[in-house]
Amino acid sequence: MESTLPNPAHVAARTSPKAVTLGFWIATVLFCLQMGFTAYAQLSLPQVAEAFTHMGFPSYFRVELSWAKFIGIAVLLAPVPARLKEWAYAGFAINLVSALIAHFSVGDGPEAWGFAAGTGMLWALSYFFWRRLTA
Are 116 and 99 in contact (CB under 8 A)? Predict the structure, then answer.
């Protein structure tokens, strides 16, 4: 019996490299904008500092997390070795999952953790397209 599923080699051949590149840059720029906004907010907005205190984090963690985000954004946008980008993606994944866990552990609703979940979707798209570019 022959499979009705498309051959993965044919599916990959139908996707143009330009479409993958465009998808990567759109997802990555949107992801970096969101992460940059959160890093800026963590450094400058008092209500974000209060949210960190609400979740039980010390104030210095908010500052070091913000600078780590800025460094990760630079790595994702710059032409650096693939291994370094992989580490940046891993760091962002840990950050986003940890944010969700922190919000859930203190009983926050979707208005608090929804931003992290949405940013996680952009992370997944960016990472998916990046893996397609490097394949």
Answer: yes
